[in-house]
Amino acid sequence: MNGKNLFFTSLIAGGAAGTCVDAALFPLDTLKTRLQSQHGFLKSGGFKGLYQGLLPVLIGSAPTAALFFVTYESIKATTQPLVNESFHAFLHMGAASLSEMVACLVRVPVEVIKQRRQALLLDKGNFDIKFLYRGYWSTVLRDMPFSLVQFPLWEYFKNVWHLYVQRDIHPMESAACGSFSGAVAAAMTTPLDVAKTRIMLASKMTQRSELKLATMLRTIYAEQGINGLFAGVGYRVMWITLGGFIFFGVYEEAKVLTQLALTQL
């Protein structure tokens, strides 16, 4: 596939996959956010209004996912021919990490608005740029370890299954690999997700020193122990397991359809 086709394929497939997942599983994400909130589950809305904050997600989901996959697939296509196959897992880790940093430029402002809506925090006035990016590094430091686990596992499981069945794997088989790898990564990175959520939901008057990831992790552990660090882990794993199946399934299917359409142009 040439560079132009790779760009458009990743753009369309990634955008479609991200939007499908975020729209379909939004209530699970809302419940997870409310369980992790420092304001408490019931005060943050409980089981009511589970679609609060959906609009910014629908606007930002496609460009965020598309940006990630355009970066990820471009790095892979550029560097894989130059690297011995035995080192491809490390290449996938690096590609995923860099892609997360790029995608977070769009993801973080969307996430801040979304989570504050989910937790029923009715902010008055406009969000300034500094406030919208207050959780950038905490999001990067959550998503990079997540991707370092998920994407190499996804590639590994796909390769193992390909060798086992001796044929190209189907989109749904790729989706199953993505689902399982996502579940593992989700459970492992839950404490980072809890801290990131607390940072994004903190009052505008919160001191900057209190919004550091390490400081927030210590605060949560001191106040609530291990249970606090793993708040919402069930909903997070469920969301990412189901989301992984939908995401990677739609992504692979959309890639096939987009490539077919591009070859006919």
TrEMBL record:
<feature type="repeat" description="Solcar">
    <location>
        <begin position="5"/>
        <end position="78"/>
    </location>
</feature>
<keyword id="KW-0812">Transmembrane</keyword>
<keyword id="KW-0677">Repeat</keyword>
<dbReference type="InterPro" id="IPR018108">
    <property type="entry name" value="MCP_transmembrane"/>
</dbReference>
<feature type="transmembrane region" description="Helical">
    <location>
        <begin position="226"/>
        <end position="251"/>
    </location>
</feature>
<feature type="transmembrane region" description="Helical">
    <location>
        <begin position="6"/>
        <end position="28"/>
    </location>
</feature>
<feature type="transmembrane region" description="Helical">
    <location>
        <begin position="49"/>
        <end position="70"/>
    </location>
</feature>
<feature type="repeat" description="Solcar">
    <location>
        <begin position="87"/>
        <end position="160"/>
    </location>
</feature>
<protein>
    <recommendedName>
        <fullName>S-adenosylmethionine mitochondrial carrier protein</fullName>
    </recommendedName>
</protein>
<comment type="similarity">
    <text>Belongs to the mitochondrial carrier (TC 2.A.29) family.</text>
</comment>
<keyword id="KW-1133">Transmembrane helix</keyword>
<dbReference type="GO" id="GO:0005743">
    <property type="term" value="C:mitochondrial inner membrane"/>
</dbReference>
<feature type="repeat" description="Solcar">
    <location>
        <begin position="169"/>
        <end position="257"/>
    </location>
</feature>
<dbReference type="InterPro" id="IPR023395">
    <property type="entry name" value="MCP_dom_sf"/>
</dbReference>
<dbReference type="Pfam" id="PF00153">
    <property type="entry name" value="Mito_carr"/>
</dbReference>
<keyword id="KW-0999">Mitochondrion inner membrane</keyword>
<keyword id="KW-0472">Membrane</keyword>
<keyword id="KW-0813">Transport</keyword>
<keyword id="KW-0496">Mitochondrion</keyword>
